[in-house]
Design goal:
This protein has 282 residues and is an alpha/beta fold. It has 12 helices and 6 strands. The chain folds into 2 domains: 72 residues, 434 Repressor (Amino-terminal Domain) (Orthogonal Bundle), CATH 1.10.260; 183 residues, Endonuclease, Chain A (2-Layer Sandwich). Strands 3-2-1-4-5-6 form a 6-stranded mixed β-sheet, sandwiched between helices. α4 runs antiparallel to α5, α7 packs across α8 and α10 packs antiparallel against α12.
Length: 282
């Protein structure tokens, strides 16, 4: 059963404004969440989350809502305001491509990639990254990042290949219990129909990409865009020379990484070095 919607305040955030407008358009057209779900091909649960401000309206939902309600580019415009609240501007285009990609390849040298992060790991990163953030701001960032992971659960998920540096497994973000939980969440995705995960051990020594993050986003038309990020900056490239070079570097990383089975064994071994979270007392 759908839970009652929380109170939204359009003046507080673009995200709340989006939810209010979605509810208003549904009421105008007389559409239930069930009926709208059939029209836009998104689950009722997901639509309810967007309408209550609990989930981000990642593309292409805004385009589908505009078609369903005949609202021109209203929801697409609102999405532009929403994403600016929760992501650095340099990452905006990358988010849009990620939501449409047929294939995603990502390397994380020392941090678990966003599509793999659990909520507790995210909170620890955001809190340390900007100590001035208020708890509600951190929760907004966590919710936004979790919304990106909907792409992995879609009816037609992209093919995703992650390569992690061993440092990403050893850096105790959030403490021992958080890391054990985070590493456990990686194991089901190591080798599936749509996902592959490998680890590059320290024993491999220096590598081309060891200083940051690299994401290769390939769209259904087979065009590829590169997003490369350091500690405080990120750049997007789509020229053929840079794309070809980065794809080759990524392929070399695959060759240096442990195969999926051995990667899983390494993750399990690392889990044993972390203490589990204490159960909540009742």
């Amino acid at each position: 059963m759908t839970q009652p919607a929380r109170d939204l305040e359009p003046s507080r955030s673009a995200r709340d404004l989006y939810g209010v407008e979605l509810r208003r358009q549904r009421q105008i057209t007389g559409l239930s969440l069930d009926r709208l779900s059939d029209i836009v091909n998104y689950s009722k649960t997901h639509l309810h989350g967007v309408e209550t401000g609990e989930r981000l309206p990642l593309p292409p939902i805004s385009e589908k809502l505009d078609v369903a309600f005949g609202t021109g580019a209203l929801f697409q415009g609102l999405w532009g305001a929403v994403k600016r609240e929760y992501s650095p501007r340099r990452f905006d285009h990358c988010l849009e491509l990620e939501a449409r990609a047929a294939r995603i390849q990502e390397f994380g040298a020392s941090v678990i990639p966003g599509l793999l992060q659990g909520p507790a790991y995210m909170r620890a990163l955001f809190a340390k990254g900007d100590p001035g953030l208020r708890p509600q701001e951190i929760e907004g960032l966590v919710s936004a990042r979790l919304s990106r992971q909907e792409v992995l659960r879609s009816d037609s998920p992209p093919d995703v290949w992650w390569i992690l540096g061993e440092a990403a497994l050893r850096q105790a973000v959030g403490g021992s219990g958080v890391m054990r939980e985070q590493l456990a969440a990686l194991l089901p995705l190591v080798e599936t129909r749509h996902t592959t995960l490998q680890v590059v051990p320290f024993a491999e020594g220096a590598c081309t990409l060891m200083s940051g993050t690299l994401i290769l986003l390939t769209l259904p038309d087979n065009s590829t865009t590169v997003y490369q990020e350091g500690p405080r900056n990120g750049e997007i490239f789509d020229d053929s020379a840079t794309v070809t070079q980065r794809v080759r570097e990524y392929d070399l990383m695959k060759a240096s990484a442990l195969p999926p089975g051995k990667s899983a064994a390494m993750i399990e071994a690392m889990m044993e070095t972390y203490e589990p979270c204490e159960p909540l007392r009742t």
